[in-house]
Design goal:
The protein has 450 residues and is of the alpha/beta class. The protein has two domains: 184 residues, Periplasmic binding protein-like II (D-Maltodextrin-Binding Protein, domain 2, 3-Layer(aba) Sandwich); 206 residues, Periplasmic binding protein-like II (D-Maltodextrin-Binding Protein, domain 2), CATH 3.40.190. A five-stranded mixed sheet has the order 2-1-3-12-6, covered by helices on one side. It has a three-stranded antiparallel sheet with strand order 10-7-11. A three-stranded mixed sheet has the order 8-9-13, covered by helices on one side. 48% of the residues are buried.
Length: 450
């Protein structure tokens, strides 16, 4: 049996300027290919593949190497910073050089799929042509972020719909009734903050905050019309109701300007009584990161807006795997094997992943394994909510060349930290978002075509 070739070339993938970056990265990569989709520029290494993963996905790559020692695999650990531009710069260099691309990659930011499928780089292959059986295992609502111009250009690692998390121990002890609408949530958050000073019901400082509130309201910040046109309209009533909710939370001392990944978040998290949040909040955030005591937190279905009958929720993450468009033969077949493994194999998706798998056929096994720990106060209700939340993720939110969460963190968060308030932060967010979209070459419209 062949010894598996597993090397982590970089514990932290840092940007290197100019030609030096291209030379360094080319030496680290086994797979290469041209910047245009031509048969002559496709490569076949004979089977060896290079895969790039961020730190949380290193265990996925390790599990693949263990399961497939017959495939020579080089693993490069890259910077996992959400919203970073380093990766895009590196791929642009590869495009100019005509080589250097990894054979498969976990994109640190979901927005990376926008430039990775653009005409200039055209890196991510159409998986509907090469992996149709795998794609069939995805619910349409889960795979939809990868559906770009009638092609499936990535695979979702996990489904990350927001559910409504709450501290069941606190609610039971104080006789509070769970809200069923977003408006009730805001009002109850203020009541709790008044009756229990220091208790909070929202984290507003991280780049996922607009997903939790604006996306959940259907606010058009990322409504992709075409590769060059997008709808952004923060005056839309769906944006304004989200803004009103956020204002209620802030003015009622029911929210923190910290983000969920901040150094002090764990201490504040102990006082979190309720919040919309991703499915992965349960194990990864509450259990592993914040170390909240077992039997405390639970989740229920997403909330609805007043006057609407169906719940509405956003999505936080649910990372994307991409396959190179520039390989063929045995190299392509082995890279496809890697893609199928990280998307579908229980060795990663059930045994090691902290989020609900995007691939439907292994979701029940993941739930069974997670349920065995009995970490949540109401295990059955929590996992029922997690499994059933995806269809309630609001449509019309695409991944773009600009990063809405990054813009939020650079505008709204400083406004909240400084005490300037939601109004000032909202104005700065709107102005910056429009400028970012236009700077990326988009034509911005306020109304979507009918």
């Amino acid at each position: 049996m062949k010894t598996p070739q597993f090397r982590r070339r970089a514990l932290s993938f840092k940007p290197v300027a100019g030609a030096a970056a291209a030379v360094l990265l080319l030496s680290a990569c086994g797979g290469s290919g041209g910047a245009t989709e031509t048969e002559a520029e496709r490569t076949d290494s004979g089977g060896a593949i290079t895969v790039w993963v961020d730190p949380p996905r290193v265990p996925a790559a390790e599990a693949f190497v263990k399961a497939h020692p017959e495939i020579e695999t080089e693993v490069v650990q890259i910077d996992g910073t959400v919203g970073g531009k380093t990766l895009q710069q590196q791929f642009s260099q590869f495009s100019q050089a005509g080589e250097g691309f990894p054979d498969a990659i976990f994109f640190p930011s979901n927005d990376d799929i926008a430039w990775a499928t653009g005409a200039q780089i055209n890196y991510a292959a159409d998986l509907s042509e090469v992996m149709p059986d795998v794609i069939e295992g995805y619910d349409e609502a889960v795979i939809s972020p990868c559906a770009i111009d009638d092609a499936i250009r990535c695979l979702r690692n996990d489904a990350a719909p927001d559910v409504f998390w709450y501290n069941k121990t606190f609610f039971d002890a104080n006789g509070y009734t769970l809200p069923t609408t977003w408006e009730e949530y805001g009002d109850l958050a203020v009541t709790i903050a008044q009756e229990h000073p220091g208790k909070i019901s929202a984290f507003l400082g991280d780049s996922y905050a607009p997903d939790r509130y604006l996306w959940a309201s259907g606010c058009p910040t990322n409504n992709r019309i075409s590769e060059t046109e997008v709808q952004i309209n923060l005056d839309d009533e769906r944006c304004q109701r989200a803004k009103s909710l956020i204002s209620t939370l802030v003015e009622g001392d029911a929210a923190t300007s910290l983000g969920i990944f901040d150094a002090d978040a764990a201490g504040i998290g102990a006082d979190l009584v309720m919040s919309p949040g991703a499915a992965w909040w349960g194990d990864y955030l509450f259990n592993q990161t914040w170390a909240i005591e077992a039997g405390t937190m639970s989740a229920v279905a997403p909330l609805s807006w007043e006057g609407e009958t169906e719940p509405s929720t956003g999505n936080e993450g649910g990372g994307l795997w991409g396959l190179s468009n520039f390989i063929e033969g045995k190299q392509l077949e082995n890279a496809k094997t890697f893609m199928e493994f990280v998307a579908t194999d229980p060795a990663w998706q059930v045994e090691l992943s902290t989020g609900l798998p995007g691939y439907g056929p292994v979701q029940d096994d993941w739930i069974e394994k997670q349920s065995a720990s009995q970490y949540f106060a109401d295990t059955e209700t929590t996992f029922q909510a997690i499994k059933e939340a995806t269809p309630h993720v609001v449509e019309g939110h695409a991944y773009m060349l600009y990063n809405t969460g990054g813009v939020w963190a650079e505008t709204m968060t400083p406004a909240l930290v400084s005490g300037n308030g939601v109004e000032a932060g909202w104005s700065a967010f709107e102005e910056r978002l429009l400028n970012e979209a236009k700077a990326q070459g988009y034509t911005v419209v306020t109304d979507a075509p009918q």
